[in-house]
Amino acid sequence: MSIIADEIIRFSSVLKIAYNFLTGRAYLKRKKFREKKKLVSVALPFSDLPFAAGTIPVFPIRMQVFNVNQYLSYLGTASNIFGWKGVSNFLGFVKNLGISEVSKIVDSIIEDVIQEINEKYNEMYDIGIEGGLSSDFCYGLKSLVGMHISKSRNVDAYMNITIRCSAFNKYLESLSAINNEPRPIWIDIPPRNIGNALELLTDNINHALGDFESLTGNSVSDNMLRNHFNISNQVKKAYKTIIYDISASDFYPCNPATFSEIMSLLNITFQDYNSNAIRYRDNMNSLVKEMRERIRKGIGMDVSGMPRIFVTPMFGGWEPKSHDYIYELGGRALYADWGLLRLLEEIPTSPRNNPVEEYARFLLNATETGIGCDNDKLTDSYLRMAKDLKADGVVFIQLFGCHSISNCYRMLRDKVRRELEIPITAITFNKIGENIEQVKTRIGAFMEMF
Amino acid sequence: METLELFEDFSLYLKEMKSQGKKVIAFISHDNIPEELIDAAGFIPLRLIFAGNDELMDASHDYLPPSTCAFAQTCIGLFALKPQQFDFLKLVDFFIVSNHCVSDICASEVICKYFNIPRLNFYISYMRNQSSEKYFRLEISAFRKNLEEIRNASISDDMLFDSIKKYNEFRKVLKDINNLNIKGSIKLKFMQNAFLYGPTILPELRDFIASNENSIPDTSNSIDLLLTGCSIFMNDILIDLIEDGGGNIIFFDTWIGHNYYSQQFEDHAIANAKNPIDLLASRYINNMYSDHSVPNFLENRITHIEQIYRKYQEKTGKRLGIINHIIKFCDHHSLMSSFFKNKLQEKEIQVLNIERDYSRANRGQLSTRIEAFMEMIRSE
Known about the structure:
The structure holds 2 protein chains of 2 kinds. By secondary structure, chain A is an alpha/beta fold. Chain A has one domain (2-304, 341-373). In chain A, 59% of the residues lie in helices and 9% in strands. In chain A, the strands form 3 sheets. Chain A has a 4-stranded parallel β-sheet with strand order 2-1-3-4. A 4-stranded parallel β-sheet of chain A has the order 8-7-9-10, with helices on both faces. Chain A has a two-stranded antiparallel sheet with strand order 5-6. In chain A, helix 2 (12-22) packs antiparallel against helix 13. The radius of gyration of chain A is 21 Å and the shape is globular. Chain B folds into 2 domains: 2-163, 3-Layer(aba) Sandwich (Rossmann fold), CATH 3.40.50; 178-379, Rossmann fold (3-Layer(aba) Sandwich), CATH 3.40.50. Helices cover 54% and strands 12% of the residues of chain B. Chain B contains 16 helices and 8 strands. In chain B, the strands form 2 sheets. Chain B has a 4-stranded parallel β-sheet with strand order 2-1-3-4. A 4-stranded parallel β-sheet of chain B has the order 6-5-7-8, with helices on both faces. In chain B, strand 1, helix 2 and strand 2 form a beta-alpha-beta unit. The chains are: A alpha/beta, B alpha/beta.
């Protein structure tokens, strides 16, 4: 991990995003108790309406207490005085001096962040099973159930948006069985875009907005929606720049393992923007700027000779060591789940448009052409993304217990081989750290093809 | 042997229907498929209601991972292996891809794609509200159009009304069968056969009811049970294990059972309806016990079962055992199973959650669990 730490400290925005993620609990407490804001639990990147309605969306793992490395904690405090940029420069300077103790500290900061998140996910998984959820469900659902068993008492509402995955929809229903205090706010997405499905979804969203209004006691105007969409569009734009321009390019602002660490951190935090959309947007814009600056200065790594390995899907759970193994074997792992599922599409905000209808169009488009109402469409999404990333190979994560997104391997394999003519392999996953040796062996065998 | 003959007869029946120019439209069985529309088009709706075994499940693993619902695996296996007794599956002309659950989508899609069966789509919303009713109408209209294209003629409202009446009568008769005071396995067998043949079998069902109306089975030593959760499909040994273990199912709260026949229309509703689609849409929106729907499925189910339980207790003074049958990897029933059990047990209603696939290996374990549950009820 030292290579990772070496690189990552140069991105102050990454430190900020990591810090904001880990210290979510204190931030959320402040919002809830001091500012009397309503907390709304979200899973998957469906935080737009809670933000626009003036509530605080929270991906529930962030209500947990994380053992924040004391130095990162110190950095957080120091940042209030010096600013984050100054802190990052300082760390870089100290690291370059080669003072071993300090170097070790810096290494451990980043290592701790990644380690801590993974351990917390596994802890939530265990709580989910102890809470009675059958172990037959996917890692993502088990963890989500665990998160809610553990902390749903802190939230005021659940943002429940139905998708094609029946287990996910039933999980949404089960939240009220775990704790029936928070108000469930539902949006049902029509399975297909036929007839006036858009109009029906618009009605459903309007209904959900009504629920938000009674939750907060404040009305939600079109301008509030547009303002938030403007911010989220900027986040998405920055995210897409990182995926399509930088991760698909031949020169990286850091080594590929670090790059993958950053992408996995973004993948998690994108779901609720660390509960603060403006702060997250600023961090994402800084991240793009920092990456571009380094590339312009030639700081980073020429990765032109390293095969691009598209690793997907990872949002429901995957082995985080995968990208380390790929890197060690001369490749680079690319993560782009939210783009693949069409959840990075921007939402038009012109005053001429009805923002509710635009949001409905966004959700329907993701359902129809991203997530797909069947595996034929879903596999087309994988293909599209693999093409966009100019992938040389695909590692498909076959998530144990996932009956939806990661259930299409056979169809995908046929299409990838036929239409893209690149190698593809599947890795089964159940729990972080459980199958490390098998993952290593599979990736090793796969990388020999390049 | 009996089932083998039944399937042979069914195969002959389907061949006969095909020779009359009728198309066979198959689907993974669920409670929101508008079978009346298929019938009105002059086609045969064929519900896949067949239990699996190790070979059938294994055969599906080329297409979907083993952590797929055992029933969906079985449906794929049937088309992959084409066992001789299921010869009639070769007669399927179209297959409906629907989204009762995501395994329904994936398995149906695999069947169409890899076994070259033309596909028809029929999707439904997860919620039951005004918008989803309107959406249901869109799907019905698209489905009707598809069927009209296949038959190369329109399906008139009158034709649809006729089919709705026919199926409504069919549901009434199935309800009567469920109310008969006969052994659960016999009741189930008749219901399964009825699901396979559809209303064609009505005369036979009526005869059966007439000859069993006053029967008093010797089930005095059995524990009366309510079966809920996943249906018991044809060829499944579960019902035998339950009866061998000392139980007798008196109420089938499953899709093959109450969930199906409870979706009846009052006669005046049919008589007063101007548009047959209104009837189908109203049935969808009132289908409160469908495991597909969110958000109140668990709540509705618990209220319903509690009502039956209390009524039974009042009538007999005894406790009714609840068996919650969960086919392994079933999204709908498995995810809710612990909440379901806990909530009913809070009301002092005993529940046995049986989660299983169709492998032979788990029969012994199933028997032991069923027997232990019967013992527990008996000792209370």
